[in-house]
Amino acid sequence: QVQLVESGGGLVQAGGSLRLSCATSRSIFSSSTMGWHRQAPGKEYEGVSCITTSDGYTYYADSVRGRFIISSDKAKNTLYLQMDSLKPEDTAVYYCVADGSNCRKASSFGSWGQGTQVTVSS
Q1: Predicted confidence (pLDDT) per residue in 80-111, tens digit
Q2: Residues 6 and 93: beta-carbon distance below 8 Å
Q3: Which residues contact 55 (CB under 8 A, 6 or more apart)?
Q4: By CB atoms within 10 Å of each CB, which of 23, 63, 72, 106 scores lowest?
C-alpha cells in the first residue's frame, strides 16, 4: 500500500476555487490508477476524477467535468485536484485514492488517504 496525505480542503463560497493536494510515499507511477473520491453526508462514495499513470488518461465524473482538473507532479510525488466554480453540492469529504483499476468504483482502490473536508457555502 502507498501512504497518501491530503491537504487543501476548507470553506469557500459558491463560485470559488480550491486546490487539493495528495502527497504520496512512493512514485506515483507505481500505481496504475490514482485519483479522488468524495463522500457527502448520507451518500455513497463518488469517483470524482482519476488519472492512469501509464498513459495519462484522465477521467472526470459528469458532475465535475469542465470545472475540476486533475494533475500530477512527478518530481514531488504529488497528485492535485484543481476545483473551480465550486457549487454547494460539491460539499463532501474528499479522499485521495491509489492502487485502483476503476475510478467509478470505490471498492477497486486499495489505498486511501485520511480525507479532507470541502465545504461550499451558497
Answers
A1: 999 999 999 999 999 999 999 899 999 999 99
A2: no
A3: none
A4: 63
Closest CA to 27 of 88, 73, 87, 90: 73
**Spatial separation of the C-alpha atoms in residues 2 and 11, rounded to whole Å:** 28
Per-residue pLDDT band at 54 (split at 50, 70, 90): confident
Bridge pairing between strands 111-112 and 10-13: unpaired
Q: How far apart are CA 75 and CA 110, in angstroms?
A: 23
Q: Which three cell numbers stand for residue 75?
A: 518530481
Distance CA 56, CA 58 (A): 6
> Which residues lie closer than 8 Å to 51 by C-beta, 6 or more apart?
33, 34, 35, 57, 58, 59, 70, 71, 72, 79
| Long-range residue pairs from 7-11, CB within 8 A, at least 24 positions apart, any chain | 7/116, 8/116, 9/94, 9/116, 9/117, 9/118, 10/117, 10/118, 10/119, 11/119, 11/120, 11/121
